[in-house]
Amino acid sequence: MLRIFTQSILKPKTIFLVDGLGAFATASILFIVQWRFQEYFGMPWEVLSLLFMIAFIFAVYSISCFLFLNKNWRIFLNAIITANLLYCCLTTGLGIYYYSTLSIVGLTYFLAEIAVIAGLVYIEFQTLKIDNQK
Length: 134
Known about the structure:
By secondary structure, this protein is mostly helical. It is built from five helices and no strands. The two termini are 19 Å apart.
């Protein structure tokens, strides 16, 4: 089972695609929330704008890596791992700072987003680890 998982999901190009699509999904959700449902989340518009821009940049980066990288992908994967961890830290910090204004929906969304990104970072680490064992 692990072998099937590692052969399909843990390929570097696949990881960049998954990361890019996830970042694009995050940016899309934040864009929609920012313009239509901000009052239901409780996070200020400016903060949602910042998080949207960061997620969009991550999406462009990861999709670009998926499309154009063939060699030396490790440094680029390390960069997105670091960026994803910093994004989780930023989101956690903002969640703590704006806790009193966040709704249950907003808190749930940001906690789920952190959990998904942390899971993705774990898979990205596994990709590096498995590649190093070859």
